[in-house]
Write a structure and sequence with these properties.
Rossmann fold, single chain, 6 helices, about 160 residues, 5 strands, globular
Length: about 160
Amino acid sequence: MSGDTQTSKRRNKFLVVVDDTPECKSAIRFACRRAWHVGGGVILLKVIEPPDFQHWMGVEQVMREEARQAAEELLQELAAEIQNDTNLIPEFVIRDGYIKDELLALIEEDPDIRILVLAASPDTGGPGPLVKSLVGEMSGTFAIPITVVPGNMSSSQLDAVT
């Protein structure tokens, strides 16, 4: 019985990986509208990947600090938009590492995360490397459902399906 009580106290969270692509906003809007409708929450994950070069430790440290500051500013801007639209206050997670590794670790750490929401790139080059990896090679073994939102959907189209 205690397992049922713990399960009922959990809050369904929608996880969105935040990046600099235009389609990311589609994933955020979809996740926020769904969370708002079901009384859930939203987690915005921003991963700061290691720089391609590691010539000087001082330069690398400055780059990381600038990337973290930019990530915090981006998440604050997104939070303001989310609050204006849905009154939800999203959780922020900023991690250093590789997106796929940090995404999997966060899902394992937070049992309230119920759905991963990703946006597929509308470009002809394919949906994007994270979507390809998670939906392709890991789809049958992934721990939670994955919702892939077409990146070219308008706000009204997204609202209609949420």
